[in-house]
Structures
1.
Amino acid sequence: MPTIEKERAEYSIGDLAREFDVTPRAIRFYEAQGLLAPGREGQRRIYTPRDRTRLKLTLRGKRLGLALSEIRELIDMYEPGRDQRPQLERFLAVLESHKASLAQQRADLEAQLSEIAAFERRVRKQLVARRRG
């Protein structure tokens, strides 16, 4: 029978790095950006379940292509027990904006690919004409 792992009270940087398959350097970077706020025990960083959740959400936001500032804004809006509607509305706005930006990038790429294809056809025709001439 599978065991359900109980949430731990604290995590080391190595624990989180292994769990989320990121480098300790990346975790320190997220800390420097204000996304994580571990406690300290001497030089050792002590991460809480809250930090673990924030790291998880940060990595999810990165997979979506969100900027760290957007991720931090969204995460900072969350407070347990508080109405989550403003956070959800802001998240939706960020997603819609990001989606529009990606759609524009896709349209730009398609236009560039079309232009490249046209130039390729011209160059191939010129090469064929030079071989014959």
Note: The chain has two domains: 1-64, 79-133.
2.
Amino acid sequence: MAVTITQASDRWFVSFKVDRVCQITEKPIDVVGVDLGIQTLATFSTGSVFDSPKPYKKLESKLSRLQYRSQP
């Protein structure tokens, strides 16, 4: 362990340096990262990809038909 005390511009600063060994602990649950995007709805860090629902593309012909019928 090391401690450094410095003074700069009428202010005092203290910094600590501690050496320690990191311990790897078991996680109770699995963790997955998720990337939300434009081309796909979600991409997981496991490699799974979920496509975006495209309601406009699916209902485009129905919308066109309804717009055509509603014209005077």
Note: Helices lie at 55-69.
3.
Amino acid sequence: MEKNAMTEARTLASVSRDTVLCMSLSARPGNFGTRFQNHLYAELGLDYLYKAFSTTDLAAAIGGIRALGIRGCAISMPFKEACIPLLDSLDASAAAIGSVNTIVNDRGHLRGYNTDYIAVARLIERHGLTPDMRLVLRGSGGMAKAVASAFRDAGFAHGTVLARNEAAGRALAGSCGFDWVPDLAQDRSAPAADLLVNVTPLGMAGGPDSETLAFEAPAIAAAAWVFDVVAIPVETPLIRAARAAGRHVITGDAVLVLQGLEQFVLYTGRRPDQAQCARAAAVALA
């Protein structure tokens, strides 16, 4: 804790007119990105500063990034799709799925990226998840697009999107070659899922559904793997239930760290080593 305070003091003491500003936009700003990015700036000796914001005027906020020369901006719910018309171009990672989680400002040109997609693709490979697995993914928003697309591009063909919003659910399922259901109870004849993925706010700390399981106990018991993209808390109700059932788990902090690392690289052009990234993650998740 003392080392973290010293790092923060060094960062704030060095702020000047030349300091490069990065930021985030979210309906419910958290502290992970602020701590993670600022720790790495200090450790690598970079004259950068990161600050989290919310907004009720997205167009004005995006215009401010351009007008004030803000180098980069992380984009979270519910702005990942709504920001696209306000940008000048999209990287392939964002254009392919119609969802942005990162904006990079190059001399007034705003380009959108999706590092969520990159993070999930790496986790699929890291954990040895294979395309023959039967997947059920709950969610249909911008993050769900990134996650579903990563599984699709990894070769997963036996997928179901579980979403109460029929239009969004059908659209996401159709784009990935998956099925759509509003409720798993309506699909009892289908084989049990090998892999359950939650990409909704269910289980998120501070939310109205912080103690809600994203999947029912029978579905968890039948699965081999459970992946919860919710990162705060790391031990969500879904992850706790999966561990209790003896299932393999992937927790949301892994996504948070990997996508944050790729954002750092986009903003600064520097790639921290594994030890530096681990220290930043430990500070951010403390």
Note: The longest strand covers residues 20-25.
4.
Amino acid sequence: MSNSEEMISAAKQGFEAAFSEKSFYNRQTQDSSHIEAILGILPVKRDMRILDLGTGSGYLAFAIAQKHPDITVVGLDIVEKALEQNRQRAAHEGLNNVSFASYDGSTFPFESRSFDMVVTRYSLHHFPDINSSLSEVDRILSGKGCFFISDPAPNEGDENGFADEYMQVKPDGHIKFRSLAEWKSLCGNCGFQLADSFISSIRFPRKYEEIYETIMKRHPKETVSSYGIEVTGGEIFITEQVNNMLFCREI
């Protein structure tokens, strides 16, 4: 098994465990105001096919499908347990324009140019080979397709990767948070230009472990304090900036 495959396997196991603690997972990821802001920036048109990459609980996929009944949404993820729950929810709610597919974490199981838009929220920092994944996004998108990314970013001044080290305590395959400049460079290599963007934030709750204190002591106090670290009620919280970026081939 390659290093990339090991990372994907670790992420899959970590998320399977997270989904078993659904209420805790939802506290980390659900934010209605953030979803509304995303829905407002997406250039959705009738009859589009949209892929939600790293769909997880389908939080974004369901929101898009519900707002736009005249399009098709497909959620893609490596965690079969979550996907099956999503399928059951779609059937229960009578949503015929959303479906869910699994994959190996590497190659997307779709034909080239088969989607008009790819969206992803809070998932790309788990991808071990980001260049390969972006190439897959490029492959499946139509000629004028757009790619929306929502992902936390390191704070300015976090030069030694405090946020990444903090996030890697939880065994869910966290790889790396990236800055806006890094995303512009990576997506630019695939022919995408930044068309629109906005900043939001996320407050991650974690079950407290002493290792967090050890990590914080290894980094400058100014860096740690910039993330608003708080320990309360047996939990530790970190607040991070989120880059929300719409990339398109043609602006």
Note: The chain has ten helices and eight strands.
